[in-house]
Prior knowledge:
By secondary structure, this protein is α+β, with helices and mostly antiparallel strands.
Amino acid sequence: MLGCRISIMTFSTTKRRLPTVLLAALALSGAASAQTTAVSSLLPPFVAGDDIISMGNWRANQFTTGSNLIGYDLYSATLQMSVANLNLGNFFVGIYSNSNNILTGDKPGAQMGANLDGSSSPGAAGQYTYLASSIHLDPNTSYWLVEGVTPISFSGYFSDYEIVNPSVTNTWTLTGQSSFSTSNGLSWLGPVTGSISMMSLQMVDVPEPAECGLIAGVVGLAGCVVVRRRKNKARATVN
């Protein structure tokens, strides 16, 4: 009879602790995957001018990631656009690697993953957000956000820009360098320093090994509690 009471008491204590353990695991996993703004030139909203984005004039804006050991997963990019002159669709946003040339400087290299998902026809003035899918960015690395219009289209859109000195938010940097392509991204002009599209980038930190271990440990502990709860319940039933 005493053994039965002890088993029931242990089961009750485990039952009370289980929600706390599971909530802790969920909180840790959520903290490791929280979406945050990595860098932004949207505020203050000072517009220095706008550049046309068309089939013959793609624009690229350079940014550099922070020092998170495992890197980052890009979540989205937001652009401030002006009124289009030919609103026929086919506008796109993509992320490109950095190609460094000693003679000509940094330029966009190869595209990373697919185009970001968003409005292909930003015809009205305002901010437009484009969602990324499976684009992983390495730490302390330069990349380019490219705005363009796919070939065989006469669409024309205006992307607002401002004069930007290198600025840092959350350890990411907008370098203030932009580049242009008149050949649909086949070649790029040398970088221009001092202006960049008004934009923000949102990212998700990839958990570092220690964080992964901590989360796994808490989830494992929760699993052990569940198993122990079932065993105690079975013993109480038998006794």
